[in-house]
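Chain A, query sequence.
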Amino acid sequence: MKPTIRTVTTASLFIILGGAIALRLSPQAVERLTAPVEPASAQTSRHYEVVSNSIYDGDTFRVTDGRQEIKVRLCGVDSPEKDQALGIEARDHLRSLIAQGKGRITLIETDTDRYGRTVAEAFIPTSNGDEEIHLNSQMVADGMAYVYPQYVGSCPNSSVIETAEGIARREAIGVWADPNAQKPWDYRQR
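Chain A, predicted structure.
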């Protein structure tokens, strides 16, 4: 399926993938990203509220279903650690994306990691209600996270996440602006 493009402003575009997912990309990137995203409604998904002040970094946060809190790790992506270059910016960027859903979030759970966190793809409903922001690929497209090669294969939309990284890398966005930047998984091994 060929994505449809809706102009939002002259400076930004939304690309609608699979009819329901919105990624904000530069006009040049729009032409290169053609992989459809499976919207949250197409798979087994659960709706939650994001716990206030729970966004720790660019790939981890907590949600609640009203009965229990769950710590969530975004599937297939790894953001810089908070004390790395762009670490705070990645956290703040994730906060700004999540804020667009006014606390609402939809998760497609894929696994539980060794720390007991729910690994998931996350979708934020937009204000008009008929689109969703795919957090995993949006963070990568914006250069605020890397594809985590060891784990991306378990994500339902792995090809979209990988395509988003290729675009961010070619455009030298965010983490890709510094060719010597250390990947978070290498940084944690120090």
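The mean pLDDT is 84. Residues 87-99 form the longest helix (13 residues).
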